[in-house]
Amino acid sequence: MTSNQVLSEIEYNVVGKRPVRPDGVDKVTGRARYGADTNQTGTLQAKVLRSPFPHARIKSINTSKAEAFPGVRAVITAKDLPLASLSKAELGNEYAGLKAASDHMLASDKVLFKGHPVAAVAAVNAHVAESALALIEIEYEELESVVDVREAMKDGAPLVHEDLRTNDMGVTADKPSNVATHMSYSTGDVEKGFAEADLVLEREYTTATVHQGYIEPHNSTAFWNSDGQLNIWTSTQGTFTVRASVANVLRLPVSQIKVTPMEIGGGFGGKITAYLDAIAAVLSKKSGVPVRALMTRSEVFEASGPAPASWMRVKIGVKNNGKMTTVETDMAMDAGAYPGSPVMQAIVCAFACYDVENGKVDGYDVVVNKPKTAAYRAPGSPQAAFAVESLIDEICGQLKIDPIEFRLLNAAKEGTRRIEGPVARRIGLVECLEAARNHDHYKTKLEGANSGRGVACGYWPNRGFQSSVVMTVNYDGVVSLIMGSVDIGGTRASIAQQTAETLGIAYEDVKPTIVDTDSIGYTFITGGSRTSFATGWAAIDAAEDVKGQMISRAAKIWDTSEDDIEYVNGGVSHKSDEELKFSFKDLARQLATTGGSITGRSSVDPTGEGNGYAVHIADVTVDPDTGKTDVTRFTAIQDAGKAVHPSYVEGQMQGGAVQGIGWALNEEYFFDDQGKMMNPTFLDYRMPTSLDLPMIDTVIVEVANPGHPYGVRGVGEAAICPPMAAVGNAVAGATGHRMRSLPITPGKILEATWENGKG
Amino acid sequence: MATIFIPSMLQSLTGGAKQVECDAGNIRQVIERLEELYPGIKDRLTEDGEIRPNLAIAIDGDVAIMGLLTKVGENSEVHFVPAIGGGL
Amino acid sequence: MAVTHVQTTLNGDEINFLCEPRQSLLEVLRDVLGMTGTKEGCNDGNCGACTVIMDGRIVDSCLVLGVEAKGADITTIEGMASPEGLHPLQQSFLENAALQCGICTPGFLLASKSLLDQEPDADEGRIRHWLAGNLCRCTGYDKIVRAVLQVSKAK
């Protein structure tokens, strides 16, 4: 049997333990209410009509037959959005941004990807709405489309936006292009570094479009009340982001919109963009009743935001002893139909695992006729890690250096200056590599024919951003913890644990509730590996506020100065009179008669997030006849700073690893020559099943983050960065073939075998 | 004096200088000072009076949370780095 | 549209409902009966989120018509716990952190229950094979398989 280890240095009472999550019982009994479970009285069902073409001009739309269909209560097109009645002159600098946001929600003049929304219907049920969609008449003029990132960059490629011009760090190009942005960073002297190297390798890599693959489809229920208040119930990673997005497109003040978070069935970055909310809202306004919109699985694939396909060139110079002298990369990622791929994150993550004197990175954000890409777990970094970590493995092979020793020799550590400039603080990559080297997996000899082992590293910077928390002390000593961060993977538990730890009370005495946008201060998304860090910070800060108020209440009761009282061991004590002390619960019981309840509060925007590093080891066997790769053993190692709830940290590591294994071996959008996705179902877009996998061993390394009271680092993202290269490197070991294009399908492996005459 | 790291794409404006020493209390003053030294650089870093949307400022490794008003320490390092994009 | 009367046994109780012939059992459960514990993930039989037990077999309720429930014996997630407490699998999922977002959990629990009802000593390989029709995107399956193993007599 395999194992999970935690390499802890500091023990706490509640932080670091594994209590049952507060929302657990509701989720194993089917009582938890997710977005699609919203049911307001008299709710209509909405369906969205989507473009069948990847690129076309809309010449006319006729909705009259759909409107007349029995059971239909409202039909909308882009004409029903505020943009239709606003002029370019009125909007000024805001125009371009609003047009993109509004058109993304409902296309006005052009459709830019297959699945682009064009119209929507609200009807008494979904079947009626679907029948009515078929009655909407749209005349399109088909345009030439482009879906490949490299093709889109060429002169003469079909233009996705006729007026888009490349922005080169503040300078706009003269002629239109599909390249929205170019950025470049460098350090040291790249040419000199290559000249000094004993070995220089340069390779190209590509990765396919992949989807986050959350099991719950997008959903939104909206009710535009006759008093003007717009209510939205949805499953989202960020209620305040939905509110801002809807307010922008519908030109409403944010406070006119209340977004209530329902439970969320997975997001991984894909449930930040608001796709359906404004559509449901406008349909509700037109029909006067609540409207619920749900995506089908095919709509999720074709019209939400997948992760970009990429093309990457990487060049690395090393000395014979393995010391890297120079690194260089060009990376291009497809943003989909509107600019904004994570390529600039990719270029700064690409070499963040290494301490190299000379380096240059260039990124190109490219629009194509595909759905606008969205964040997917460590956006940009997994693709970059695949390229860089594959090339490093090739270098290790040529220099005959152990891949972990090579990485230890070059590893980034405290004081390492990254290519984009900032210097690393205390980070745990070296400790992760050492844990990998010492792990039973790495020490166990690889056995059997056609098997291989691969190692790779990954990095995500992690971030803070704003979070708000309110907590009240009930008269029985139980603390109600109120927050705006939605819980995707156990953060009710991890925030409650930090609260309990700070107050010195039991985990069971903290009761978390996640509330709507009217009931808490601004709180950014659950994503970016920020929630346990930043909302944890807010909870700690609010708990400190409670402690201060508990002290002043005791001072009132004892008729003494607050300075004479201290908060210790979950209660208050008089510093000099041993007789005077209250446990948290005893003091709570006195609150009602000494001035009422106590409310602690905090809104924070913390910096000091600790960078996240992960190291993975993968063993595979490759069937020489079929080319099929099986992952036979897998170990994920990661620096969590301090794992607040180790089980959910392991869950993040294992889940990230498996998404990465899918990205490595199976997952891919297939486009036909017209730019249409051919596999928008879970049957044909094949994600890993339980049968495809071994247990995923984990090692939680804890190198405390000095920027957090308990040393917490974000953990959600670094785990998806190493698997593609780890698996690819293992495949190279098993087959002798270096796979530089994801996914590593059986077909690609067989082709490589035949080309080399080994088949 | 704070040390301002000039992004490589803007080093053509600084005559190749990669770092500039600068006496400034906050980022707005940093940018004003850079503009005095290297006319045109302000437009490359800001748009409508704010830092460009695809850029973020890092001061001693921390992303500036108060935009141009963020304080700069006496010996701080200031970097103009890519903004975290794509909704994370 | 004309509706059909269906009499069926749901979580031990005999019930009646009216549904359109085109409505799936999943739709009937969620939209007609208001039992939203059964989840929709794909509506085409590929994810297992809507798994229910029908006459002793696990089915994707999105692939069964509501009218096919006539005379059947159906168990959904709402029928898994008893007044005495959670089913041992539900308890094990909680203790082993076998869920993150939880949307696939009802389907996994019913599929696991069906396996252990028939094969109380299922081992890891058997569990992985049996659960291959249920997709989970959060956990990488490790903790789900461990949770089922803990309840299995095979251990």
CATH architecture descriptor text of the largest domain in chain A: 2-Layer Sandwich
Main sheet strand line-up of chain A: 4-6-2-15-12-13-14
- Give the low-confidence spans of chain C: none
Number of helices of chain A: 21
Estimated helix fraction of chain A: 25-40%
User: Spans of chain A of 5+ residues with little confidence (pLDDT < 50)?
Assistant: none
Domain count of chain A, please report it.
3
Describe the model.
- The complex is a heterotrimer of chains A (759), B (88) and C (155).
- Chain A contains 21 helices and 29 strands.
- In chain A, the strands form six sheets. Chain A has a seven-stranded mixed sheet, with helices on both faces.
- Chain A starts with a strand and ends with a helix.
- Chain B has one domain (2-82): Roll (Ubiquitin-like (UB roll)), CATH 3.10.20.30.
- Helices cover 18% and strands 28% of the residues of chain B.
- Chain B has helices at residues 27-37, 41-45, and strands at residues 2-5, 19-22, 46-47, 50-51, 55-59, 62-63, 77-82.
- A five-stranded mixed sheet of chain B has the order 2-1-7-5-6, with helices on one face.
- Chain C has two domains: 4-79, Ubiquitin-like (UB roll) (Roll), CATH 3.10.20.30; 88-151, DNA polymerase, domain 1 (Orthogonal Bundle).
- Chain C has five helices and five strands.
- Chains in contact: A-B, A-C.
- Chains A and C meet through helix 1 and helix 19 of A and helix 2, helix 3, helix 4 and helix 5 of C.
How do the strands and helices of this protein lay out in sequence?
The complex is a heterotrimer of chains A (about 750), B (about 90) and C (about 160).
Chain A: E1 4-7, H1 24-28, E2 44-50, E3 56-62, H2 64-68, E4 72-77, H3 88-91, H4 95-105, E5 110-111, E6 117-123, H5 126-133, E7 137-142, H6 149-153, E8 165-168, E9 171-176, E10 179-187, H7 190-196, E11 199-207, E12 219-224, E13 230-234, H8 239-250, E14 257-261, H9 277-287, E15 291-294, H10 297-303, E16 310-318, E17 324-336, H11 343-349, E18 358-367, H12 381-399, H13 403-410, H14 429-438, H15 440-443, E19 451-460, E20 467-473, E21 479-483, H16 491-503, E22 510-514, H17 531-558, E23 565-568, E24 571-574, E25 581-583, H18 584-589, E26 598-604, E27 612-622, E28 629-639, H19 646-665, E29 696-701, H20 723-735, H21 746-755
Parallel strand pairs in A: 1-29, 2-15, 8-10, 13-14, 17-18, 21-22, 28-29
Antiparallel strand pairs in A: 2-6, 3-5, 3-7, 4-6, 8-9, 10-18, 11-16, 12-13, 12-15, 16-17, 19-27, 20-21, 20-26, 23-24, 24-25, 27-28
Chain B: E1 2-5, E2 19-22, H1 27-37, H2 41-45, E3 46-47, E4 50-51, E5 55-59, E6 62-63, E7 77-82
Parallel strand pairs in B: 1-7
Antiparallel strand pairs in B: 1-2, 3-4, 5-6, 5-7
Chain C: E1 4-10, E2 13-19, H1 25-32, E3 51-54, E4 57-60, E5 73-75, H2 88-95, H3 105-118, H4 124-130, H5 142-151
Parallel strand pairs in C: 1-5
Antiparallel strand pairs in C: 1-2, 3-4, 3-5
Helix pairs in contact in C: 2-5
